[in-house]
Specification:
alpha/beta; Rossmann fold; Arc Repressor Mutant, subunit A; four-stranded antiparallel β-sheet; 11 strands
């Protein structure tokens, strides 16, 4: 069994018995994933599966050791169990998000909608309830990596009150720079490409999260967080509107009140 902090790259005796899914698209640099999970069975299964599908994986069994390692180097994707010894997954995610936009996926045995919302409010980009499919986890990690590296295409987008530097994933609203998480940026980028059009939550989940199915509350939480950053008055939004019973619409210029 791998020890906390041990990389699967160094395990000569490891045998992968979970089955191989479609590998990630080959990139010049192997995507790096850090897994923080106190259950050794889950930790080994997740690490081995990702390793078998093209990722460089380092695993930790507690939040304290993971925090120390993350202070030195950040991965392409961070996977964190919510219930950790030492410091909780929620606390670790908040600390990482305070200084970094690294994509974060949270794992948890708490599957209620309220628990998922609480997890998303810590700044995570994705949320997966146990028990989960390793193939689903692989696909979600792949989506996070692709979105975080899509900015390499470069360019600038200007739409009404919004300016987006695609290469650096930076956003200005009404001339002021706004700090967005990875998922918030992806959501805004999608909305900017679909101005003044009603988009359903299912379409947002598919296009922004890469999910064919998922909780509508995931979109609701991220829309609320995005409004808090781009609207003058989040309670009376001019740009990001709820279209009751249909989804959302985005107005770059801003609707008159």
């Amino acid at each position: 069994m791998p020890q906390a902090g041990e990389s699967f790259r160094d395990r000569k005796d490891l045998r992968v018995v979970v089955g191989r899914a479609t590998s990630v698209d080959r990139m010049e640099e192997q995507p790096r994933v850090v897994v923080v999970e106190d259950d050794p069975t889950v930790r080994e299964a997740v690490g081995a599966y990702l390793r078998a599908n093209g990722y460089a994986v380092v695993v930790f069994g507690d939040g304290v050791s993971a925090r120390a390692a993350l202070a030195d180097e950040l991965p392409d994707v961070l996977i964190v169990d919510r219930m950790l010894p030492g410091i909780s997954g929620d606390e670790l995610c908040r600390e990482v998000r305070a200084t970094s936009e690294v994509p974060i996926m949270m794992l948890t045995a708490l599957g209620q909608v309220e628990d998922r919302i609480e997890g998303l409010e810590t700044g995570v980009d994705d949320y997966l309830a146990k028990p989960f499919s390793l193939r689903e986890l692989l696909l979600r990690v792949g989506a996070l990596v692709r979105r975080s590296r899509a900015a390499q295409a470069g360019g600038e987008v200007v739409a009404g009150a919004f300016r987006m530097d695609v290469a650096r994933r930076r956003v200005w609203v009404r001339g002021d720079e706004v700090a967005l998480t990875t998922r918030e940026y992806d959501l805004l980028a999608f909305l900017v490409r679909a101005p003044d059009r009603v988009v359903a939550r299912d379409e947002i989940l598919r296009e922004v999260w890469g999910w064919s199915i998922g909780e509508a509350s995931t979109v609701t939480v991220h829309v609320r967080r995005l409004r808090e950053k781009i609207e003058v008055d989040p309670q009376d939004p001019r740009h990001l509107h709820t279209e009751w019973g249909a989804g959302y619409s985005f107005s770059p210029q801003g609707r008159l009140r």
